[in-house]
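Can't paste images in this forum, so I'm doing it all in text. The chain is below; anyone willing to post the predicted structure tokens underneath?
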Amino acid sequence: MKKNQFKSKLNLDNSVIKEARKSASKIAYKMQKFIDSYTTVSVERTVCRILGIDGVNDFGVPLANIVVNNIQQGSGLGLGAAFFIGNAMIHTSLSPQEIAEQIADKKLELTKLPIHDLFEIKLKIDSVSKKSLEKIKVTKKTREDFLSKYGDKEGPLLYVIVATGNIYEDVTQAVAAAKQGADVIAVIRTTGQSLLDYIPYGATTEGFGGTYATQENFRIMRKALDDVGEELGRYIRLVNYASGLCMPEISIIAAFEGLDFLLNDALYGILFRDINMKRTLIDQYFSRMINAFAGITINTGEDNYLTTSDAFEEAHTVLASQFINEQFALLAGLKEEQMGLGHAFEMNPSIKNGFLYEIAQAQMAREIFPNAPLKYMPPTKFITGNIFKGHIQDALFNIVTIMTNQKICLLGMLTEAIHTPFMHDRALSIENAKYIFNNLENLGDEITFQPDGIIETRAKDVLAEATELLQEIEKKGLFQALSEGIFAGIKRNHDGGKGLDGVVPKDRNYYNPFIDLMKKELGMEEN
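Text version of the structure:
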């Protein structure tokens, strides 16, 4: 970290920041009480996957889905998949994978087996559970060893996307980007995958607007980045997207395969993918706990608010959401250093002094969340087919990035409004960022802001508005606030959206061994 990077320049009132955090904490804690009372089909499929259940049947249906559907059809999901798998292990002496295969062959009905003593069931499943988590620890250690060998980057991470639809073509483009100087490769998911209530299987070559997120695709890209990383003598981070109906499942396959960042934000799924709010908030908790355990940094989606709402008028909603996301993350065991809270450079270029307002927003986020890496998004809403103007807009974004010490810098593309970037588009964007970051490396250390000037006043105003908004949400509750369109002007019904039928109340004997095991490893107090 650079010296003096977090020295306050905006003279923000710490008491106001504390009030905002207090309200956000109450919002998250109240929601956690709801979350703790329910499970979902995706949470239980994740339990199956951690226990070692993998593969698909002859029709391409994942075995994890088959097992959970079997339990749900027998009205037993409230007890948890681990309960029935442990019970079946005692009754049949089969492994979880073998049990899943028996169910797929219609030779076993989990809920129709005689139920053994609960203590015996837990003892049986615990013997498998601890071994299952070791694989994640090994993968995490591999990342740590790589970083220890080559060191990590001090300044902003240059983050670019690949989105061909074909994992092998993605590899070609990702390797080229790494050689051009990229530090982070994000493999964009195929359009609509967030709405699938299952994870496709194997390597894929036919995505639209992106590539399917599958465990095999994760493995292929991770290996390619590790190989080119060894060649270049630096670690290349890998990103994918967990938000959607399979949030915790994608987190676990990402943990198995060594991904570094995941878009992991229930609010994003609610607002921009119309995922049912109850379903995705429950999913998010277990998903984020897995990420915390695996050392994966989450990315949140507040930047998307500004692609639909005015960045000047609605900046406070971004900050309010960041506060809420921070508290949800803490409840799931994530360290502040694993919170890539999102924001964006999306001010209308025609606004006078818009660049100063962008500085205010970015510096404010840095001072309020000093330990978070922050995910800073480039201009997209006002990028046109004029690639020369677009390149200048991206340059201004890069200047704010280095001035305010943003960490996860998603590079703007001069062809943003024309097509998915070509390799030479990425090369130009990387060159732009490297030039600015090198020439302005210590600019932020050298400048101060005018007391009560445009930048300081703007930051204080946004903080005050965000605090008022959080207090309003605290009174109403998050569900009600979302139904009223509090973020991005998008209204969602409590019981609307996709996936509500996958939400199940927990039985008093519900069992998920991984929550307690992960809490213990993360040093969290048990509920």
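Residues 1-5 have pLDDT under 50 and may be disordered. The CA atoms of residues 298 and 323 lie 14 Å apart.
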